[in-house]
């Protein structure tokens, strides 16, 4: 038994095959675009995650710096008058304390004397303390 194809059926068959091939190619291109979009979203997500972790590190570091500064103040019995903190200028504080005339303060901070009042054997001193090594 022989099947005879008409010209119309041949044309429809080739057209259908062509459409299937075109749709397959479009499917491949769309899949590639979706995969690239997925990779971009992953990259953005990783960048945001890195930025957030960097922020957490900086905040923890700032807390440690401020905590260390206040520990220094309490260890030396300084009374806080004024306190400023900024990322560009660092820590600055004005403090008051009672000191003996020969007493020296060793510190990693820059300490300058603002005023001094003689109170007999001790001095009432107002000091300005600044953090060293901060970009200004």
From TrEMBL:
Entry superkingdom: Bacteria
Keywords, sorted A to Z: Membrane, Transmembrane, Transmembrane helix
Membrane-spanning parts: 12-32
Name used for this protein in its record: Sensor histidine kinase
């Amino acid at each position: 038994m022989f099947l005879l194809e008409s010209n119309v059926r041949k044309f429809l068959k080739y057209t259908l095959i062509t459409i299937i091939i075109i749709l397959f190619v479009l499917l491949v291109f769309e899949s590639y675009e979706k995969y690239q979009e997925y990779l971009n979203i992953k990259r953005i997500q990783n960048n945001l995650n890195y930025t957030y972790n960097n922020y957490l590190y900086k905040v923890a570091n700032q807390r440690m710096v401020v905590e260390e500064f206040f520990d220094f103040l309490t260890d030396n019995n300084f009374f806080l008058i004024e306190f400023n903190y900024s990322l560009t200028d660092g820590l600055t504080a004005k403090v008051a304390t009672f000191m003996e005339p020969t007493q020296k303060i060793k510190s990693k901070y820059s300490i300058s004397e603002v005023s001094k009042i003689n109170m007999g054997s001790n001095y009432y001193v107002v000091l300005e303390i600044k953090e060293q090594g901060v970009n200004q």
